[in-house]
Amino acid sequence: MDLEKPPARHQSHATSEGCLVVAIRLPVRIVALVVVVPVRMVWDAVVVSGRFLNDVVLRSVGRGLLWLAKVLVGWPLVGLWRYVVVPGARLLGWLGRVLLVVPVVWLYRYVLTPAGHGLAWLYARVLTPVGRAVGWLVWWSVVVPVGWLYEWVLAPVGRAFAWCVRGALSGAGVVAYWVARVLLVLPALAVWRWVLVPVGRVLGVVVREVGEALGHAWRIAGRISLVVGRFLAGLFRWVFVEPVRWVYRTVLTPVGHVVRDVLLRPVAEAARAVARVSRQALAAARETVRQARADVRRTLAGVLGVPRERDGAAGREPMPLDTRTLERSTTALTKITKD
């Protein structure tokens, strides 16, 4: 039975594993680097694009959809809950209380409780004595004879039968144990120790080296991708951003200042002056028309012999200080022209 003993440790195991590692590591790392670098660069590009898309598009779209969902779903549901479901639930609760709870309480209080009290009295006064009498009869007529039969007849017979069966099963179990041990356990143990364990060690070394190579290649690809990204960012900055910034600072800003100071600001001031003069002219014209209407009214009053109300028109229509009167020869328009 040498198969049950653990195998001796060979000193050449470490040496063979070291040779295997050296033979696998360099090719695997080269292949992993060649395969992983494009994947890492594509991954970094996808990550940058996803962040840009999330910051610029998806958040705005998400906020719009959230507001739309709130308007189309949230507010109608709140209104439905507040003005339909809650009043309906209150109405159903009131109907359930009136139609179900009150009749059930009345039935329990005035029907079931008296009936229960009657059944309790019947159980205590009638069923309990009858049950005790029946139990005493069953105990002495059935239980005691059956117990005696079990203790003095069935138990000895059962013990003898169990001893026989236990002996038979013990012999059969020993035979089956040795047959299974010789035919199954020892071959399986040999296959495990001399085939599966060495193969597993070799596969473990291969898997470990492949994993380390992929990790190393992934880190190198990340550095390469970072360098390429910084180069492209710098190229975009010096090819597009810096010229646009220079044109904006050097050309567009001075031109905008010149256009603002030479053209837009004088035009705006002239427009404001024209608007101010137009407002003043319109005010003077309205005041002239008002004074002419008052003069016509006073003239008609003198021709018709109607007594003139003293200072009536002045009381109805206040005269500004800068308007033309009968005593003054200047008008608001004349004053604006002089100014």
Number of domains: 1
Q: The biggest beta sheet, please?
A: none
Q: Percentage of helical residues? A: over 70%
Give the uncertain stretches in residue-range form: 1-14, 310-339
Q: Which structural class is indicated by helix and strand composition?
A: mainly alpha
**Could you give the order of the helices and strands?**
HHH
- Gross morphology: flat
Chain-averaged pLDDT: 78
List how many beta strands DSSP finds: 0
Number of helices: 3
Question: Key features?
Answer:
0% strand; flat; disordered N terminus; 90% helix; transmembrane; mainly alpha; disordered C terminus; single chain; transmembrane helix; 339 residues
Question: Would you give an account of this structure?
Answer:
- Keywords: Membrane, Transmembrane, Transmembrane helix.
- It comes from Streptomyces vulcanius.
- This is Integral membrane protein.
- With 339 residues, the protein is an all-alpha fold.
- It has one domain.
- Helices cover 90% and strands 0% of the residues.
- It has 3 helices and no strands.
- The longest helix is centred in the middle third of the chain and has 292 residues.
- The chain is flat.
- The N terminus and C terminus are likely disordered.
Write the layout of secondary structure elements.
Elements lengths: L11 H292 L8 H5 L15 H7 L1
Keywords: Membrane, Transmembrane, Transmembrane helix
Protein name: Integral membrane protein
Organism: Streptomyces vulcanius
Overview in brief:
Keywords: Membrane, Transmembrane, Transmembrane helix. It contains three helices and no strands.
